[in-house]
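Obj: model holo form, ligand = pyridoxal-5'-phosphate.
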Amino acid sequence: MSRSPYVALHPVGLHVTQTARRATAADIVASVQREIGAGALPAGSRLPPVRALEKQLGISKNTAQAAYDELVARGLVETREREGVFVLAAARTAAPIPIVSPPLPVFIAPPISRPDLPPRGTIALSTVFIDPELLPTERLAECARSVLREKMPSHYDAQGYPPLRAAIAARLQARGLDVQADEVIITTGSQQSLDIVARSLVTKRIAVESPVYGYAKLLFETSGHELVGLHLDPFEGIDLAAWDRALAAKPALAYLISSFHNPTGYSYTSAELRGVLELCAKHGVAILEDDWGSDMLSDGEYRPMLRMLGGKDVLYVNSFTKKLLPSLRVGFLAASPELVPTLVAMKRLSTLGNAWLTEAVVCEFLERGYYDTHLAQLQRELDARYAACLAALDEMMPDGVRWTRPGGGPTLWLEIPRSVPYEVLEPYLAKRGIHVSNASAAFIGEPHLHGFRLAYAYLSQSEMRNALTIVADALRLLGGSR
Ligand SMILES: Cc1ncc(COP(=O)(O)O)c(C=O)c1O
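Output (holo structure tokens):
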């Protein structure tokens, strides 16, 4: 016959320890009685056999037996022949001890956050991701296999895998940026770079373009920063006089996406890059440049950056996540040498260090020259999708609809007539399987644009055409235009 498992009685529960004194029979009786009273030993629980109790508590057989005899005598347990010692139903005489729960912590209101990918089965018209079909998963797997054949180092460097830092610095140098390996900090995507910079600032005020990349805005707000809006109209360009007035609020930092701005696709002109540098110098405002897109141009071309013109004092962020593989989550921050120790210390607080395995895979990918080949192939495909998207827009969109022409990057901005309320358009499209993101939360203050991000890097040309046909019909129908 199989026996039921028996519960354990611990010296700690008996309020004695090995180093102090040994449990007496009275200790055991009191402890079992307490646990029965508290409901921790319900009726039918099997107590340890005498020999097991001897071992568990380091007591003699006599003490264990004496304790059980006393428990039987008190009517709390019974001994069943060849089965063991069991708690009796009638034993639970003492009032149960209520469980004391601590209160839940008080959290801030939940930040608005979207799922990482639009719902399955919908056509994601606003996502910033690149079509996974265009990403080099096979070659990455090859690099991962090669890395795994090596012995992984047992320890990490909070600043990031040194060979990857060197490879990144070499790439940046090849693009005319004076960046050394020890000025690079590897982060979990560029999002973590933004986080460690935001948490390092003494003055809690950051200037951002309005509209701006939504998760940067939320991140800065939830880390206690006051945001100063820098009005950006992708159809008109930057009004430097308005930025001059805004920067007079003396934010600690201006967070700027100078190439293929998210969400509008706008790229600063050379005159604007210089104008912004001058304004920031005039008002004593540091710059954090988010360069997620400057290398997304055909033929190995790239756009100039604030970091290139403004030198080492411009904090510079970039990432492999979109262009290589989102799940790798590898991004980086380049900072002038005197800022590196604080930024690394902040990163250490947040993650101690990141996974070297992933960083080593990205490093292998760069060192084998795969990244440049990949970017060139990717860009050819993105160019084709971009051209097809513009052609479809030209052909289909009703009067009053405008769009930006970024010439690179993964998205453009579609500006729709104000006669079509966004709150009506969004559910109308959702019912037809098309998911667009509401950009109103990306503005500082009242939105001055009325539209959404249109992603041509994620959808195939035919998916894009189908989606735009539906969007154009919706705009005609809801806006009463022809
Ligand atoms: C402009 C911009 N910067 C930074 C990020 C963060 O990306 P990641 O952390 O994947 O590098 C994103 C993500 O979409 C983005 O659009």
